[in-house]
């Protein structure tokens, strides 16, 4: 994210205080002491942190929720620490089902660097409360196993550790849980203690599914330092049907364009259901309450215009990728549906867009009817011929009138866009 984008962001001044705005946006699920937290946020400038484990080479939408709440606190004058888990990423927090596959130290090290760069784009490293990037490997690597057991492990009670939801779920599964993942909560607790000692960090944030790990830190600081510190947990973001948000056919929506293209990213937001779109605007944009309420009204009165979805897609794609990437996605959508010039789309955008559609690989000279079958737009040669005869088949936005027509023209010498009717699209890649 550009510095210009960061400078344009602000919290909504219509709220009495920051915590009220966070609650309205649906970003507060659990906290240790709401009154004490509110007082700390209103009367002091605190240091806070969120941790991101390098379990993949890119951050995803769940991480974006945390990055944006970090930014909201920074805009209120508080001091952010973005922790990249160089050590916890080597261990992995307990998954609900099977044991995590442990990545090599070299892989984790590479991912630490990538995630640090990604996270840094959403925070300001300038001004009176600049963000700071930290790596928990800095304080865990020097520890010996004996030091770890004597100086940290002695403060943790096994009964309490077993009662944590993430642990108990695994214990009661057929897979059980290894000591490696069992010890994760100790490492996360130690992170909070070290950040408290080094930076006077008094607030940790994270997802509500991490509550057991989050509380390990507050407990440890209370036992070791005799101090009370804060936790704020965000709710698990779900769709109106109860499905976990951010999954598309089982695949995460990534922030790195290498894994989810800007076009695919834009389309994901554009396709958010009416029932969910206002909640997404609250969480993922810096639009004000008044602006979001206006979009809610537009959605209720004219849902077919999809004004809220278009604004959501524009805002979040611009936030994560750039305003230029968002506009390229908009232009690509228009061109694909015959409302723009396909030849003006760059190779990367066109390839990404076609990759999101049903597609096939075929050489020049392939009958159009065969392409229609191969991409699933029709189910037979006769149906393909009938579609052409009725004037509903287009290649690269040019109407096909000959039932015996073959593929002769390509975009960028690589692609063709196949369309049946106004809304049904498919892609063709040359062999």
Describe the structure.
The chain is an alpha/beta fold and 431 residues long. The protein has helices at 3-8, 18-24, 34-43, 61-75, 88-91, 105-120, 137-140, 145-152, 158-163, 165-171, 179-182, 184-199, 211-225, 262-270, 274-284, 289-301, 307-320, 323-336, 347-355, 368-374, 381-389; strands at 30-31, 47-52, 79-84, 132-135, 201-207, 230-234, 247-248, 251-252, 359-361, 393-395, 398-399, 415-420, 424-429. It contains 21 helices and 13 strands. The strands form three sheets. The protein has a six-stranded mixed sheet, sandwiched between helices. It has a five-stranded mixed sheet with strand order 9-13-12-10-11, sandwiched between helices. A two-stranded antiparallel sheet has the order 7-8. Helix 12 packs across helix 13 (211-225), helix 14 packs across helix 18 and helix 15 runs parallel beside helix 17. The protein is elongated and about 80 Å long. 38% of the residues are buried. The mean pLDDT is 91.
Give a quick rundown of the structure.
With about 425 residues, this protein is α/β, with parallel strands linked by helices.
And the CATH topology of the largest domain? Answer: Rossmann fold
CATH class of the largest domain: Alpha Beta
- The total of helices stands at 21
Q: Main sheet?
A: 6 strands, mixed
* CATH architecture identity of the largest domain: 3-Layer(aba) Sandwich
List keywords for this structure.
431 residues, 21 helices, Structural Genomics Hypothetical 15.5 Kd Protein In mrcA-pckA Intergenic Region, Chain A, 13 strands, alpha/beta
């Amino acid at each position: 994210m550009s510095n210009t984008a960061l400078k344009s962001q602000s919290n909504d001044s219509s709220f009495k205080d920051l915590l009220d705005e966070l609650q309205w946006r649906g970003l507060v699920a659990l906290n240790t002491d709401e009154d004490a937290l509110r007082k700390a946020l209103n009367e002091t400038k605190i240091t806070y942190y969120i941790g991101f484990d390098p379990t993949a080479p890119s951050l995803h939408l769940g991480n974006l929720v945390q990055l944006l709440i970090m930014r909201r606190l920074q805009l209120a004058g508080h001091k952010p620490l973005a922790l990249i888990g160089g050590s916890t990423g080597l261990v992995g927090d307990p998954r609900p089902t099977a044991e995590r596959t442990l990545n090599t130290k070299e892989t984790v090290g590479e991912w630490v660097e990538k995630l640090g760069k990604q996270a840094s784009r959403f925070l300001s490293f300038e001004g009176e409360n600049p963000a700071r990037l930290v790596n928990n490997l800095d304080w865990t690597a020097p520890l010996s196993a004996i030091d770890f057991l004597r100086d940290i492990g002695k403060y943790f009670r096994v009964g309490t550790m077993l009662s944590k939801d993430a642990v108990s779920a695994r214990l009661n599964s057929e897979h059980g849980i290894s000591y490696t993942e069992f010890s994760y909560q100790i490492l996360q607790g130690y992170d909070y203690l070290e950040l408290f000692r080094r930076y006077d960090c008094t607030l940790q944030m994270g997802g509500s599914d991490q509550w057991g790990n989050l509380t390990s830190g507050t407990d440890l600081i209370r036992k070791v330092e005799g101090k009370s510190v804060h936790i704020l947990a965000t709710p698990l973001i779900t769709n109106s049907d109860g499905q976990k948000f951010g999954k598309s056919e089982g695949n995460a929506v990534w922030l790195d364009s290498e894994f989810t293209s800007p076009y695919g990213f834009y389309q994901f937001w554009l396709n958010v259901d009416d029932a969910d779109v206002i909640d997404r605007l609250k969480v993922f944009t810096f639009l004000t309450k008044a602006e979001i309420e206006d979009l809610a009204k537009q959605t209720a009165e004219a849902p077919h215009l999809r004004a809220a979805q278009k604004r959501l897609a524009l805002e979040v794609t611009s936030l994560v990728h750039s305003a230029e990437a968002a506009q390229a996605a908009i232009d690509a959508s228009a061109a694909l549906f015959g409302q723009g010039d396909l030849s003006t789309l760059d190779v990367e955008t066109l390839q990404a867009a076609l990759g999101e559609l049903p597609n096939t690989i075929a050489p020049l000279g392939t009958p159009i009817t065969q392409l229609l079958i191969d991409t699933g737009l029709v189910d037979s040669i006769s149906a393909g011929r009938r579609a052409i005869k009725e004037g509903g088949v287009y290649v690269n936005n040019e109407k096909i009138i000959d039932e015996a027509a073959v593929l002769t023209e390509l975009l960028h010498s690589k692609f063709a866009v196949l369309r049946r009717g106004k809304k049904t699209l498919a892609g063709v890649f040359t062999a």
